[in-house]
Task: structure prediction
Amino acid sequence: MSSKEHKKHKLFMVDDHPVFRRGIRQLLQFAPEIELVGEAASCDEALAGISVTRPDLVLLDLRLHKNSGHEILRLIRPQWPEIKVVILTVSDAEEDLTEALRDGATGYLLKDMEPEELLEGVRHALKGEIILSQRLRSTLGRVLNGTGRDDPEKKNVLSRRECEIVAAVAQGKTNKMIAQLLGITEETVKVHMKRILRRTKLKNRVELAVWVNDQSRLAPATRAIP
Amino acid sequence: MSSKEHKKHKLFMVDDHPVFRRGIRQLLQFAPEIELVGEAASCDEALAGISVTRPDLVLLDLRLHKNSGHEILRLIRPQWPEIKVVILTVSDAEEDLTEALRDGATGYLLKDMEPEELLEGVRHALKGEIILSQRLRSTLGRVLNGTGRDDPEKKNVLSRRECEIVAAVAQGKTNKMIAQLLGITEETVKVHMKRILRRTKLKNRVELAVWVNDQSRLAPATRAIP
DNA sequence: GGGCATATACCTCGAAAGAGGTAATCCATG
DNA sequence: CATGGATTACCTCTTTCGAGGTATATGCCC
Result:
C-alpha cells in the first residue's frame, strides 16, 4: 500500500444486488480518500468481513435475502460501537427509519438518490454527522415528535410501567424479582415483557438489556426510555 | 443554597458503621468544595438515596449488614455510569480489589489510611482519576499481570473458548445458537456457561451480557475478555 | 508421571422465560 | 358515550436456563 495519503477511510458494503454493488464501486472511484475494503451479500458474510477488515463505515442494505439489515446493525453496534453504519435502502417506511435510528445507525439514505449526494452523505457520515435523505426529513419530524401515526403495536415509545421493567431487566433481574420490586404478579411482568419485546423487535431479555445499556450510553437525550 | 461556589461536588456515603460515617462527616468539613448529599447503611437505602441525590461520587463500604458493596456497585454502574464509585473498606483481599475494579470502581481505599490521604484520594477521584491505597499497589501489579495466586475457581481470566461464548451471549444468542455457531453440543455450552458465571460471580446471562458490553466500552485495554 | 486446567459430552431436575389466549379495570381522547 | 391504550391477573404449553453430577481426552507445568 502506498503511504502517501494520511489514511484512507475504510468502507464496507453489504448489499445482495451485485449490480448495485458494482455501481457503488464505480462511484467510489471518484472518492480517492475512501477505500472499499470489502463487500458482502449476506449477514454471515457481512459479520465475517467486518470483523476482519474493521471498516470505518458500513453501507448497509436493509433487505437482504435471508436476514434483514436491521439484524446486522444490531449485531454490529454492540461489538464495534466505533464503526459507523449508514443504511442504504429502497425502503422509505417510517418503521424502518425509526428502527434503524433507534439501533444506532449513523445515517439513512435512499437508493434512488443521486450518486453525488450519496457520496456527499458518506463523507459527512465519516465525519461523524448523522445523515438522512432529504425525502425523509418530514418523516423524521413525525418520529421525533413521537407522533407515529401507524398501528399501535409498532409504537416506538414505551409506557412508564414498561420502562420500569426494562430498567430492571437491564440489571439482570428475573421476572419474579421485578414482580416483587413493583408489587405485581410475575404473570403480569411476563405480559409486559412480551409486549416490550414485540415493540422493540428484540428477541429476548438479553438483547433488551444490551440495547438499553447501549441507549443510555450513546444517546441519553434521544433514547426511547425516558 | 448559596450560589457562591461554582458547584459543590456531591458525595454520597454508604457504610453501616454510624461512627465511621460521623468520622467522614467530620473530615468533610475540611473540604468545603465537597457536599455530603446523603448517607446510607444498606443496599436499599443506598440505591434510593443515590437515585434521588444523584451524587458525583459514592463512597462505598464493601461489607454491609445484608448485601455486599459489590452488589451495590454492580447496580450503580449500569444505571448511572457517570457516577464515580470509590470503595472504602477494611478488606485488602486481592479478590475484593479485582472484583471492584472489574465492576468499574473508580478507586479502592483502605479504611486504615490517613484522613488527609483519604480526602486527597477523593479529590483525585472526582477529577476522574483512578485511585488506590498505597498498600494495594503490589496486589494490583499481580492482578494486572493475571498472576492471581489463589484458588483456580476464582481466576479472573477467561479461557479462549469461554470468551467466544461470552461474546455470543452478549449478543443475545441462546445456548443452542451458540452450540451451532461453535460446532459443539448445547450441553457443552451449558457447562461453559456455568463455569463462566461462577468465575465472574454474575448471576445470569443478562448480567453477563451487560457486564461485557460495559467492559468493552469503558476499558477496552483492561477488559478481561481479550 | 502426576497433577491441573481445558474442552468435550451426557444425565437429571427444577426454575425461568416466552408465546398464546381471555378478561377485568381505569383513564383519556374523540 | 364509545373506542382504545395501559395495567392488572390468570390459564396453558413449550423452550430455555442453570445447578448438580459423572466421564473422557488433551495438553501443560512441575
User: Anything to note?
Assistant: Chain B has two domains: 3-129, 149-221. Residues 174-176, 186, 190, 193-194, 197, 204-205 of chain B lie near DNA strand D (CB under 10 Å from a C1').
